[in-house]
Design brief:
This protein is of the alpha+beta class. The chain contains one helix and two strands, in the order H-E-E. The protein is elongated, with a radius of gyration of 15 Å.
Length: 52
């Protein structure tokens, strides 16, 4: 990709999906899987803290 060429990686549906995943998560991580400059998968790992 040339320096002047910009590819749109995040579209509105990706942003909406990420916002939904993050809105109710207290602890955890979200991983984006990219192939050929496109998001092909979103993984969410949520952790639950157990207090004694």
């Amino acid at each position: 990709m040339k320096k002047t060429e910009i590819r749109q990686v995040l579209d509105r549906s990706h942003v909406d999906t990420l916002q939904k995943l993050l809105s109710d998560m207290k602890f955890g991580s979200v991983t984006l899987i990219i192939q050929d400059s496109k998001i092909v998968q979103i993984d969410k790992t949520e952790k639950y803290r157990i207090k004694d």
